[in-house]
Design a protein that fits this description.
Length: about 100
């Protein structure tokens, strides 16, 4: 059954289509148009860890996101979780509040 489910393009976990969201590789506010489909958990984790300027300048491809040291332990962990399971995220203390 899991093979019939769509996969998150970042963690590659199977998930139901309703749990996939469009992520702009370069934020829309900075002119980005290209999108990838990510599970809500991965999408949220990216935005917890990185600011839009970082995403536009340093992490504007899936390969760069997968190679990011900040995401390494998260990706190792999330890949082991049950397909389609969703998790709550907390804001990183390193991220500045606006």
């Amino acid at each position: 059954m899991n093979q019939d489910l769509p996969r998150c393009q970042l963690c590659q976990r199977p998930t139901v289509a309703a749990h996939l969201t469009k992520h702009h590789l370069t934020p829309r506010s900075l002119g980005g148009r290209e999108t990838v489909l990510l599970c809500r958990t991965c999408h949220g984790q990216i935005h917890v860890l990185f600011e839009n300027k970082q995403l536009a300048g340093e992490f504007d491809t899936l390969a760069k996101l997968r190679a990011a040291p900040q995401l390494a332990s998260y990706l190792g962990w999330i890949r082991k979780q049950k397909p389609g399971r969703q998790f709550h995220r907390t804001t990183s203390p390193r991220r500045r509040r606006k």
